[in-house]
Amino acid sequence: xxxxxxxLWELRRLxxxxxxxxxxYILSGGEPSQPLAQSDKDPGPTxxxxxxxxxxxxxDIPPYMMKCPSNGLCSRLPADCIECKTNFxxxxxxxxxFDCTVKPSVxxxxxxxxxxxxxxxxxTCRFCWQLPETDYECSSSTSCMAVSCPRQRYTANCxxxxxxxxxxxxTFPKMLYCNWTGGYKWSxxxxxxxxxxxxxxxxxxxxxxxxxxxxLFSFGGLGIWTLLDVLLIxxxxxxxxxxxxxx
Length: 247
Prior knowledge:
TM2; transmembrane helix; transmembrane; glycoprotein; 247 residues; 7 helices; alpha+beta
């Protein structure tokens, strides 16, 4: 009886070990074990696990969404938020209507606060470059002469404001008059010309150091040059050396 009890206990212990090894094999997902010498020569196929992230495009916000108000009136959406079927055969300056649809992820409502994906847009038939100057913004230039005869122009890149609708490209080049300032005050230049013009202070202030030296060493051209500069600066004919306008 003692021997039979001992054998039964050993058998239970062996079953527990086999059960543990089978569970470990299932959890590890491994292949059947091979002899050690054979595994050194031929490791066999290995399994690699690649973590595939979730699609990011579903959470990405389109760039135009920064300009598109949520649940606003469809007719007041910026041009970057809608797509319209335009007709270039309309009569310039006349009212015209176009069928428009909002871009993906954009929501808008009509006058009755009903959500819409398509709507009718009322606008004036004209190209973007024909808009008034208040409806677009243009780049500035500090490399042209604002004070010259004839007055100089420069090529500016203009962009239509977001809330304005028009035909054609919303970015266009346009020739504009030079209109920038370097911070020179007309009142300061005139005051220096009247008080210290004989020493060339007005010319030095305007950045015209050659003329300033000429007035300094000629005592204002014996007063004649001084009087002429008072008149020329007073009428705005003589300006800053960098070609900018007075403030």
